[in-house]
Amino acid sequence: MELELITRRPARPRPDSPRLLLVHGICVGAWVWEEHVMPWFADAGFEVHALSLRGHGGSGGRERLNDWRLADYTDDLRRAVAQLEAGPLVVVGHSLGGAVVQDWIRSGGHAAGVALLASVPPWGLAYSAWQMMLSTPDLFQQLARLGFAGAQSPDPDVMRRHLFSDELPDADYARFARRVQGESRHVGIELQGWRPFAPMPWQSPPIFVLGGLDDRFIRPDAVRGTATYYGATPHLVPRLAHALMLDPRWEDAARPLLDWVLRLPA
């Protein structure tokens, strides 16, 4: 099956820098990283790659989307890593992508470092879903509809209000909404936590954990819990929501990630 791997190479490479491999969240593809994050890191001297998991973006398998499981997405990441040249690699996962990256480490993947951005926590989403059902029932209802009725079913006003900051321009949200797609029902169920996917903390490479203080999906307490599990320092960015790579404040997330990558052992 063909996998989409988008690449940005730096005009002035930073000596001895690791390459970055970015893994997206639910219902999107590698395209979410293209507008801001990939060119910004390339300008900083890094070679950057973004993977579209099967059934997403420009990768094959869209017609069988509901057949795929988390193990299939993990295999996609394994294949993408194998395509890259040997050398230090930092793997970055957002939301669902964070669960994929954790599962890849659990199943033997190796990296110089791993970054989990607004990531599914190591124990799954069941507790986060319960919190959402109580505090933002409209978002809970719309995400449930997204899983069972496809990408065109959710209320766009609810999704915008809860997944993005208030500062996002209307035109930017409209472009995002046109590209959103459905997600595998199997994966949605697995992410609740019944199927273990996190490595033991001592199995993991150096880990960076970041989330937004205004994220109503992966809330700050889940970000703190993920950091505690892996023995990392949580980075919580004010006025940043879940879709952080598309937020007007996206650089407030990219900058601490860059600082952390630069501090990794050579």
Mean pLDDT metric? 89
Spatial ordering of strands, largest sheet: 1-3-2-4-5-6-7
Radius of gyration from the alpha-carbon trace, in angstroms: 17 Å
Q: Name the CATH superfamily assignment.
A: Alpha/Beta hydrolase fold, catalytic domain
What is the helix fraction of residues, given as a range? Answer: 25-40%
Given the helix and strand composition, which structural class is it?
alpha/beta
Shape-level CATH architecture: 3-Layer(aba) Sandwich
CATH topology: Rossmann fold
Tell me the β content.
Answer: 5-15%
Number of strands: 7
| Alpha plus pi helix count | 10
Domain unit count: 1
Shape: globular
Order of helices and strands: EEHEHEHEHHHHHEHEH
Indicate the CATH class: Alpha Beta
Cα separation of the termini: 34 Å
Which helices and strands occur, and which strands form pairs?
Layout: E1 4-8, E2 19-23, H1 37-43, E3 48-52, H2 70-83, E4 89-94, H3 96-106, E5 113-117, H4 126-135, H5 137-149, H6 156-163, H7 170-179, H8 185-190, E6 207-212, H9 220-230, E7 234-237, H10 250-263
Parallel strand pairs: 2-3, 2-4, 4-5, 5-6, 6-7
Antiparallel strand pairs: 1-3
